[in-house]
Design a protein that fits this description.
alpha/beta, Rossmann fold, seven-stranded mixed β-sheet, five-stranded parallel β-sheet, 15 strands, 44% helix
Length: 382
């Protein structure tokens, strides 16, 4: 028969428990980040990482989440689906509470297959594929779907720009983003009375002959060209269009927005219009302060991916605050957040983790992005 535990030992055990609790409370919260940090289209991913880092630093400086700091564990997915799956597997092995990533839809879908199996939250700042829309799962995003973006851009081009024949050119290397985007655009344009006379597909990874593709589109006598391409390939397409003396209206998907578009496009991209899910020129103090801090830290202006990387960490931290930094219950906590004050206005997550936010038409004028039109959420989501 065991005797009673001495009072002195009880005190010692209590002290050990308090010490263990204190150690656990001070232990950093591991959050994973995965994106294309090396490769031809790494610019946007690097900006996204920079924005995420800024958010983590500011959260930690403000006391962290429940007194615990966030530790950002970073992996490079190499810009290929298999790389994304491997990066997420490595992060899960490090017991992260959630993964922020990936930049493109193809990599996000590959990562999703890994994270959903392990019931790990995957929170993408920029993936827009409609393949993950309306699902009760562990996936969240701050970027509107390709269905919404394609539909509203077609509406704008037909009704506001009065263009009827719009050729589409898109990158098959990110087909889970580009194909549904093109499909939604063509479907809406046709419903309005317009037409897509040609859809040209290329693979940026295989050094495509852009000259031949432009000749094919020009032969259709299209009055507009819609590029669903990255910020490194859209300017190349625009340059070739102008080299062939083709005076046609140019449009691009959000994927093209970045310094490289203007830097490499020059006068060829002057007048190009894009649809974006935020206003890069919003004069709100919150966004202006973010842009100033980003430029001071990284010596360049932020692009859309930097802003979305920053916002994603902020929203994720709000969810982690509800779970005391634990992965358990994080999906439910994020789904219950509802509206969150973003950098350029409120951001709202629906019950499936899909975002509801305004859309904007942005144009390039005098080597700068200017805001032409603001679409309120109620205009886009009936």
């Amino acid at each position: 028969m065991y005797g009673r535990i001495p009072v002195r030992m009880l005190g010692w055990l209590a002290a050990c428990c308090l010490l263990l609790t204190a150690c656990m409370a001070s232990k950093p919260i591991p959050v994973g980040f995965a994106a294309e940090l090396t490769g031809k289209q790494s610019e946007a991913s690097i900006q996204m990482r920079n924005g995420a880092r800024m958010a983590v630093e500011e959260i930690n400086q403000a006391g962290g989440v429940g007194g615990r700091k966030i530790e950002l564990l970073i992996e490079d997915d190499g810009g290929v689906p298999e790389g994304a799956a491997q990066a997420d597997q490595r992060l899960i092995q490090q017991q992260v509470v959630a993964i922020v990533g990936h930049l493109t839809s193809n990599q996000t879908l590959a990562g999703y297959a890994v994270t959903e199996t392990s019931q790990t939250v995957l929170f993408s700042p920029t993936a827009a594929t409609s393949a993950l829309t309306g699902k009760k799962d562990h996936f969240f995003r701050l970027f509107p779907t390709t269905d919404r973006l394609g539909t509203e851009f077609a509406r704008y081009i037909y009704q506001e720009r009065k263009l009827v024949r719009v050729a589409i050119i898109y990158d098959l290397d990110n087909n889970s983003y580009t194909e549904p985007f093109a499909g939604a655009f063509e479907k809406k344009l046709a419903a309005l009375g317009g037409t897509v006379p040609i859809q040209v597909q290329y693979q940026s990874s295989k050094s495509p002959d852009i000259r031949e593709f432009v000749e094919q589109m020009r032969a259709t006598e299209a009055d507009g060209v819609f590029m669903i391409s990255s910020s490194t390939f859209a300017p190349l397409i625009a340059q070739e269009i102008r080299l062939q003396n083709w005076d046609v209206a140019l449009f691009a998907a959000p994927w093209a927005q970045g310094d490289a578009l203007i830097q490499f496009g020059g006068m060829a991209v002057e007048g190009m219009e894009l649809i974006l899910p935020y206003d890069i020129n919003d004069p709100s103090p919150k966004l202006m302060a973010f842009k100033e801090r980003y430029r001071a830290r990284y010596n360049e202006p932020p692009t859309f991916s930097a802003m979305f990387g920053y916002e994603t960490l902020q929203v994720l931290a709000a969810g982690l605050a509800k779970t005391s930094g634990r992965a358990q219950g994080l999906s439910e906590a994020l789904a219950a957040i509802g509206s969150y004050p973003g950098l350029s206005g409120p951001v709202r997550l629906d019950e499936f983790g899909d975002v509801i936010r305004p859309l904007y038409i942005i144009a390039i004028q005098d080597n700068q992005f200017i805001t032409k039109l603001h679409l309120q959420p109620e205009d886009v989501w009936p």
